TrEMBL record:
CDD domains recorded: AHBA_syn
Keyword Thylakoid: no
Organism, scientific name: Paenibacillus spongiae
Protein name (Swiss-Prot/TrEMBL): DegT/DnrJ/EryC1/StrS family aminotransferase
Chain coiled-coil ranges: none
Length: 415
């Protein structure tokens, strides 16, 4: 029997994916050696040992920034930046409704109020026009989330921040070595926050980094203290005078050690992911009913994942039908990303961050209605997410592209 290459795997045709996806080991002898050295120091405290310090020095060199602070997680890194930026009770902080919930945790711990800006339909990043429309006299900061490796439009965001006197914190948890018009994401705002949890480009198990971009040593000291219960350790003597509350978000030498080895792999990981993401976009260009994620001209994405959108009306199939047919082609994918925009979470719907209290929401009476960010809601309803890995081969990407083309063309031609 002759096989028709255009017959969907779902209907008995050949699967688009013919070989297993490339895989690899993230950790090796480099990490082991660093860990051994860390233990041989006879201390795992970041301030006495050399591993966290070396990790940060290398990070600063890679990023060309003067100062950075280590943290216990990406969530902690964002909280540190908010605290160091002076975000406090009753302030409003504008951020993205499509992000990890770690983005909003620190805002609420500072008793500040998250305000959500709508997104661009194709980059999935915050729309500067929407950001500006959300500004009030309470607005103190913008947390700009660079989603899935793709940079926000930082020039207009920085212009808005300067115009209204706001701090800008970049959430780079998904966006290592991402470039906005040649500049690295995380070096443009006042602070850049990174995560080294086990699912990010590089892993230390858990961990985070905050860059302090003002170049002012005092700002570095403030951020450093905010990660360490407000202990001031960077002068001659440790100062323990407690002038305000700050959490303990310290990184240990074990994480720092693994981080050193991981950092040396980061450029290779990012260039592989960039290459794969671009290759997939070329492979699916021009399809009816499928829109590839957009990387704006002059920018570079390092693709933490790959999220395309289905236009069900044009395609002639539902997103779920498309997703299922693609899965049968041997190409794993998930409809959507987070289940709902962040503001539809019970915390925001009930306006209850702290049990039994509506504080700080009751300071302004803010409510979070469905429809406040219609584009963001539309993205989550129509998106299909595919994995990108630095271990994938060109063949993997080409077969992903072929599968998407086959499924999309089938549904479109059947219309
Ligand atoms: C992962 C992530 C975080 C939180 O990082 P953790 O290390 O898990 O706390 C914050 N923001 C975004 C966009 C993320 O993807």
């Amino acid at each position: 029997m002759l096989m028709d290459d255009h017959l969907l795997a779902m209907h008995g045709g050949p699967r688009s994916k013919t070989v297993p996806f490339g895989t690899g080991r993230r950790f090796g002898d480099e990490e082991l050696l660093e860990l051994k050295e860390a233990l041989e120091q006879n201390t795992l405290f970041y301030h006495y040992g050399q591993k966290v310090k070396t990790f940060l020095t290398r990070f600063n060199e890679l990023y060309g920034v003067p100062y950075s602070v280590a943290a216990s997680s990406g969530t902690a890194a964002i909280h540190i930046a908010l605290g160091a930026a002076g975000v406090s009770v009753g302030d409003e902080v504008i951020t993205s409704p499509i992000t990890d919930q770690g983005t909003v945790v620190g805002i609420l711990y500072q008793n500040a109020i998250p305000v959500f800006a709508d997104l661009d339909p194709h980059t999935y990043n915050m729309d500067p026009v929407s950001i500006e429309s959300r500004i009030t006299s309470r607005t103190k900061a913008i947390v700009a989330v660079h989603l899935a490796g793709n940079p926000c439009e930082m020039d207009p965001i920085m212009d808005i921040a300067r115009k209204y006197g706001l701090k800008v914190i970049e959430d780079c948890a998904q966006s290592y070595l991402t470039r906005y018009r040649g500049r690295l994401a995380g070096t443009i705002g006042d602070y850049g926050c990174f995560s080294t949890n086990d699912f990010k480009h590089i892993s230390t198990g858990d961990g985070g980094i905050v860059t302090v971009n003002s170049g002012r040593e005092a700002d570095y000291h403030t951020a450093h203290a905010f990660a360490d219960k407000n202990y001031r350790r960077l002068g001659q003597d440790v100062i323990r005078d407690l002038h305000g509350i700050a959490p303990n978000y310290r990184m240990t030498e074990l994480q720092g050690a693994v981080g050193i080895a991981q950092l040396s792999k980061l450029p290779g990981i990012c260039s592989s992911r960039s290459h794969h993401g671009q290759r997939l976009t070329w492979a699916i260009a021009g399809l009816n009913g499928i829109t590839a994620p957009q990387v704006n001209a002059g920018n570079e994405s390092t693709y933490w994942f790959y999220m395309l959108r289905v236009d069900e009306g044009v395609l002639g199939a539902s997103r779920e039908e498309f997703s299922e047919a693609l899965a049968q082609e041997g190409i794993p994918n998930v409809p959507g990303y987070i289940p709902e925009v962040v503001y539809m979470q019970p915390l925001f719907q009930k306006r209850e961050a702290y049990a039994g209290s509506h504080f700080p929401f009751d300071l302004t009476g803010i409510t979070y209605e469905r429809g406040i960010c219609p584009t963001a809601e539309g993205i989550l309803r129509t998106a299909v997410r595919l994995s990108i890995s630095e271990f994938y081969t060109d063949q993997d990407i080409d077969e992903m592209g072929a599968g998407i083309r086959k499924v999309a063309n089938y549904f479109y031609s059947r219309k």
